[in-house]
Amino acid sequence: SLSLREVKLCLLGDAGVGKSSLVLRFVADSFNENSESTIGASFMSKTLIVEDQTFKYQIWDTAGQEKYRGLAPMYYRNAAAAIIVYEITRKQSFEALKHWVKELRQFGPSNIILAIAGNKSDLESQRQVSSDEAKEYADSIDALFVETSALTADNVSYLFEALSKRLPQE
Ligand code: GTP
Ligand code: MG
């Protein structure tokens, strides 16, 4: 049966990992080399059809800079899903992701569906976080794990499709 589901989604993660770029790739299939650091948060929506179901994503793209950290709860509150992003080329961003997971576990919605995106997979030669390590961590917290590139578009649609399939049936 055809149904429309509204899904509130929040993106979290360190500054510069590519949250806004992933959203821009997903929503508009484009990429901006000179993407500006987000101020506060930005909102976009996008409709996606997966297996006969229509998902209307309401996407809150948060700002990763430390000074905006305290705003995050406004955006993950009532979220059905969160994508926590790190960049495969910066180990520190992977460590920061673990802090976001802890915060969500403690203060976020109890039934929130989590996805971890290892972005900038096009920069393989600069990799600092192995796929195995990240996958193992994602499995340990029951999160979806996908390595993406907002630049090449690799796995970006897949990320949102796989996430859609993980949402509980209504
Ligand atoms: P904040 O808004 O400050 O939290 O950062 P952000 O996570 O939204 O990062 P943003 O999307 O603005 O991207 C930061 C920089 O990384 C920009 O120069 C992007 O062009 C670049 N970038 C984003 N995604 C990719 C990617 O997949 N590959 C490569 N090579 N560069 C990327
Ligand atoms: Mg941004």
Account of the 3D structure:
This protein is of the alpha/beta class. It contains five helices and six strands, in the order E-H-E-E-H-E-H-E-H-E-H. It has helices at 19-28, 72-76, 91-107, 131-140, 156-166; strands at 3-12, 41-50, 53-62, 81-87, 113-119, 144-147. The chain has a six-stranded mixed beta sheet, with helices on both faces. Helix 3 (91-107) links the parallel strand 4 and strand 5. The longest helix has 17 residues, at 91-107. The chain is globular and about 45 Å long. The protein starts with a strand and ends with a helix. The mean pLDDT is 96. Guanosine-5'-triphosphate is lined by residues 15-21, 32-33, 35, 37-38, 63-65, 119-120, 122-123, 149-151.
Keywords, please?
170 residues, alpha/beta, 6-stranded mixed sheet, 6 strands, 31% helix, globular, binds guanosine-5'-triphosphate, binds magnesium ion, Rab31 protein
Helix-strand blueprint:
Layout: E1 3-12, H1 19-28, E2 41-50, E3 53-62, H2 72-76, E4 81-87, H3 91-107, E5 113-119, H4 131-140, E6 144-147, H5 156-166
Parallel strand pairs: 1-3, 1-4, 4-5, 5-6
Antiparallel strand pairs: 2-3
The structure holds guanosine-5'-triphosphate and magnesium ion.
Q: Tally the helices: what do you get?
A: 5
Strand portion, in percent?
Answer: 25-35%
Number of strands: 6
Percent of residues in helices comes to 25-40%
Quick structural gist:
With 170 residues, the chain is α/β, with parallel strands linked by helices. It has helices at 19-28, 72-76, 91-107, 131-140, 156-166; strands at 3-12, 41-50, 53-62, 81-87, 113-119, 144-147.
